[in-house]
Amino acid sequence: MVRSLVNLIHLRRALAVRGLTLAGSALDSQAGREEGRIRPARLLEDASLAWHPVPPPAPWPDPVAFLDGVQRSVLLAYAGAAPLVLGDAAAAVRERRARRLAGVLQARRVLLIGRPAALEAAGPAVGGVDTLALPTDEPPHPGRDLANAGRALDRVRGALERSLGEQYRRRSAGWLLVDGPLTESPLWAADSHLVGIARSHATLPFDGPDLERFLHLPAAHRTSVYQPETRSVSPVLEWALRLWPWEGKDIFHGLVRVQVAPENGTPERADLISRRILAERAPLSPAGDGWDRLLYGMHTVQRFLRASTPY
Amino acid sequence: MSQDVPPLGQVVATELKPSTPHQFHFWTARDAPMGIGAIVRVEHAGRVVFGVVTDGVAYSDLATPMHAVIGADGDPVAAGLEPSERVEIRLFTASVLRQMPEEPLQPVPLGPVWLASDQDVALALRMDAYTAGDRPTGIPVGLYAAGGLESPVYLDCDFLLGPEAAHLNITGVSGLATKTSAVEFMLGSIFGTFPRHKGSVAALCFNVKGPDLCFLDQPGALSDEDRRQYARLGLRPEPFEDVHYYAPFKPDGVNLNTLRTHEALAANTQPLVWGLREVLDYAEVVLNRDDVDAKADAFIDFLAERVVGREYQDDMLRGKPFLVQSFADLEVFFRAIFDFMEVLGKGGEVWKTHHLATIRKVRNRLSNISTRSKGLVTDDGVAQDLPWGAFADRSVHVVDVAGLDPLAQDLVFARVVSKLREHLERRDLGVDHVVVFVDELNKYAPADGAETYVRKMLLDLSERGRYLGLVLFAAQQFRSQVQRRVVGNAGTAVFGRMDMDELAMPAYATLSPAIKIKLATLPKGELMVRHPHFTQPIFVRFPRPAVLGGREGIERFPPGPELPFAGAVARQLRRLDRRIAPSAVEALLEGRREDDVRRALSATRRERPADPLAFFSACLGRRVNGEVVGPRRGVPAVKHGDDGYGI
Question: How far is the C-alpha of B385 from the C-alpha of B244, rounded, in Å?
Fold first, then answer.
């Protein structure tokens, strides 16, 4: 378990002594994430995109675990025009047995992110904190560098998640539900006991009438199984599942994409996994966390990680 | 202090719920054996803090109840079937019992929390100051239990029986083994553990209702658990060895006015009979009720100092002196005054500076006493009293006033307690400390109503008794209805199951809602104890008293039937000599006046002669045969031959 506290006040004071220009603001944790696009998928079930009612919800057998990660970054100072960012990325697995969730794995990294020159300018002021250098193929630009820092931290978090997911699967035969796609890892993409639940819809798998049908999916229904087109080489199968009625709300309300290994892509397995995910609708996650798509197990992982943030 | 067991909780502090020198908050796992009343220890950075849990909250991460409804689709059954249990916190609030070191006094550190061990309990309650050393003064009051741990809790006898503090007050609803059981257990505990170096101790109990205290000398049924608790407390589960019962007679003067009339219990059940002198000294008890003024007091003083118990000569009233020793003699004296005032005094209003109306008022009140206290007050002037000056160490004296008129009860309280005080002041009672147990304190020392002699006496006892060794153990159902100074002077207070209405009174405002609900639902045999050494109330369990309870006692020793006059006299004589045949007594009483019989019986009981029947017969004296009056003859007419009328 990682538990090292970072005193931001002391850190900023030391940077000021080194002649850096202090700055202070929390950065958007979504910075650097994917922008909206359509990547047409290949339908594997049905001739055209169809809705399938999901049989009554049925809970996962014990044990089942939830993997999620968080990241947080703050702008500390500028070395000239180059920003220095303190980032915190963490991931954890919480396992459920007999209805009780308990943490089983956790990893965290606190990093000082910036151009090499900026990191050098900070020098020993940030002693003890790992550093992560940003690429220097382009001249310094505060906005671009901050976006790069966000992406770098995102990759660190992703790496932590993959590491923990693989560790968990090595030690447990239980199912592991991951907050996000499985395509990040070839091991994940091939694991028949991993289920990725993507809550973001920046990349949509259809366009035209199919997209409309995709987005109008009724509650407790799933779409046909399809193979999404991804940048990753890891092949996974996917379908959309509506957890809560969207009518009268946003069109994405309660809509998640379920990613599984190819062997779980049969209609029967899709129904079974959908039933189990539907059972996870309750208890509800708190309203502020996008409760309509965030499973409670994931919420507890996030809450656990945020409660133990080092600064 | 090394820890062999893992902590059960962790102190937390926020801006809204900070840790202070007197209170702290800690969380535990959901299944931790932590509860209201548990004693805990916080140990962190060289500081040890003991606290008692006074409140607790639990909540989950549910933002609003509506989310639970939505999550369960409106079906409460489905709510219990959710695949994950919500994250939940158990957050307890504890009040500080003790900090070590005590200086500098600081907020409770944010450290781990353990349940208190035996040693911790002793330290937390400061019992280490009086249960250890060469001259320990601890009196077991019960067992503190939490989380599978069990520790004896001791009171300091210097603060229970004086001289530092004293008195015990017990509050609890009726019928749940609180008041009577608690006091019986406490007396047993005191008798079993009161240190020799503190002197001797006896108890005097007033049995004010039913058979509650009628079987203190008989063993009660105890379970194995009770015996285990006695062993844990270091006490022997035995009834009291030296118990004496005193009960007045019923109005017939021969049947005892008590439920303890079973033949097998007769040996230590004695009559309580008082004469005019005993009553007159405490006349204020009954006279102050009706607003008797200073004039009446002056006349009573006159009677007490000049008339009662000595020869009083007043040639104006009658030629020979008065010797007033009984209510009957007093009535003769009053009659003489009234006759003098009506006939010889030529209708005057004043006799020896006392107004006739005052004299009549005093006569009425005193006469009222003898009427309402018939059975307690004798006309023959011979009293049978408690063994003043001969109280033995560890003896219990029970005065059964349950069947008496309230006025007579007041009289008994006043006189008995006053006599105790007199003897303790003179150090000639026979013991150094006396515990006086009074039940239904709200009746005798009420918070509201007119000032009575008994209330003043109880207040005086509670304020000054500890210096004399006179200690009040009192019980009531509603503490709020008792005179505040009387309960306030009780150094130790015990609370059993309480009524919620009572707990809503301002006097209980210092208790947390959780403590109140615990008090309202306390099971039998559990108490909350306040004691000067404990900075917070502590919950303890105590075993059943080792004596026979009132209800069981009545079943095992059913009261003897109320006998006709002759039978009752025979029963009393048979207590002195079981060979006496009832038929012989009945033959002896044939044609006798009941007052003469009562007088002879009283003398026999008092003398306890070798041959009670012969002595009784001698006291009765020679039988006076009734005079046979022959038929009256008519008065013959006077014959006068020289009647001028020629008849």
Answer: 12
Q: Cα dist. B255→B89, B258, B260, B570 in Å?
A: 67, 9, 11, 11
For chain B, the domain total comes to 4
Mutation target to probe the B interface, by most B beta carbons within 10 A, among A95, A292, A296 is A296
- Quote the domain boundaries for residue A238: 31-63+174-280
DSSP conformational letter for B107: P
Yes or no, beta carbons of B68 and A100 under 8 Å apart: no
Q: Which residue on chain A is closest to B72 by alpha carbon? A: A282
B264 in any annotated domain? yes
Question: Does the CB of A280 have a partner CB in chain B at under 8 Å?
Answer: yes
DSSP string, B334-403: HHHHHHIIIIISTT-SEETTEEHHHHHHHHHHHHHHHHHTBTTB-SSS--B---TT-PPTTEEEEEE-TT
Do A182 and A45 lie in one domain? The reply is yes
Asked whether A152 and A131 are in contact (CB, 8 A), the reply is no
Quick: pLDDT tens for A171-208: 999 999 999 989 888 899 999 999 999 998 888 999 99
Counting the structural domains of chain A, the total is: 2
CA dihedral angle for residue B598, residue B603, residue B606, residue B607, rounded to 10 degrees: -150
User: Span B325-329, mean pLDDT?
Assistant: 81
Q: A102 with A156, same domain?
A: yes
Structure tokens at A103: 């943490």
- The verdict on a CB contact (< 8 Å) between A282 and B64 is no
- For residue range B31-82, list pLDDT tens digits in order: 899 999 999 999 998 999 999 999 999 998 888 888 888 778 788 888 878 8
ipTM for this prediction: 0.78
Count of residues for chain A? Answer: 311
Residues B206 and B301 in one domain: no
> What are residue B480's phi and psi, to 5 degrees?
-65, -15
Chain A residues in contact with B82 (beta carbon < 8 A): 99, 282-283
Residues A149, A247, single domain; the answer is: no
- What's the whole-number mean pLDDT along residues A79-92? 92
Mutation choice for A interface testing from B84, B86, B89 by most A CBs within 10 A: B84
Q: Which of A287, A291, A297 sits opposite B84 (nearest CB)?
A: A297
Note the pLDDT tens digit of each residue in A232-284: 667 899 999 999 999 888 899 999 999 999 999 999 999 999 999 999 998 98
Domain-located, residue B574: yes
> What does the radius of gyration of chain B's CA atoms come to, in whole angstroms?
33
Q: For the CA atoms of A47, A51, A57, A63, what is the dihedral angle to 10 degrees?
A: 50
Tokens representing residue A16 in the block: 């000021």
Residues A235 and A185 in one domain: yes
Angle between helices B565-576 and B594-607 (to 10 degrees): 10
Rounded to a whole number, what is the distance in Å from the CA of A100 to chain B's nearest CA? 6
The answer, for A99 touching chain B at a CB cutoff of 8 Å, is yes
What is the pLDDT of chain B when averaged over all its residues?
88
Q: Which residue has the tokens 């207040």?
A: B459
Q: What is the pLDDT of residue B130?
A: 94
A284 and B61 in contact by Cβ < 8 A?
A: no
